[in-house]
Amino acid sequence: MSTGEFDDAMHMPHASQDFLTLAMLSVGIDPDSFHTLEFVRDGFMSRTCITCPHRRRCHSHLEAFDFESHYRDFCPNRDNFSKLLAKRYDA
Ligand code: SF4
After folding, report:
1. Residue 87: predicted pLDDT
2. Ligand 1 in contact with 58 (CB < 6 A)?
3. What CA–CA distance (Å, rounded) separates 46 from 72?
4. What is the DSSP letter of 73?
């Protein structure tokens, strides 16, 4: 492994890092509500995050606090976020 590859690996967001909670907060979803927890479990959203090919990009936007303006372009959970956001106004 070259020094560059090592540096890249060190800066890769760790697979277990909880991007889902941060992403939800960023788009305006309450990650702790009963409905959200149920939906996350049934929709395999955590698994989608852990295997997501866009974690680096996601991490950068979360860090820059502009995830909510960009996630629709790349996030594999975007439709799930839309469903959760739509549900928020159903209650
Ligand atoms: S871009 Fe990937 S890691 Fe980020 S919230 Fe969406 S699915 Fe999860």
Report:
1. 82
2. yes
3. 17
4. G
Confidence of residue 18 (pLDDT cuts 50, 70, 90): confident
Q: Is the shortest distance between the CB of 76 and ligand 1 below 6 Å?
A: yes
CA distance 17 to 3: 24
Q: Output the six-digit token pair for 78.
A: 């975007």
Half-sphere exposure of 5 (CA within 13 A, CB side): 2
Alpha helices per DSSP H over the chain: 3-11, 19-27, 34-42, 45-50, 55-63, 67-70, 78-88
Predicted confidence (pLDDT) per residue in 28-76, tens digit: 999 999 999 998 888 789 889 989 999 999 999 999 999 999 999 999 9
**Which amino acid is it at 65?**
F
Residue 52 has what DSSP assignment? -
Residue 91 CA, ligand 1 centroid: distance in Å: 26
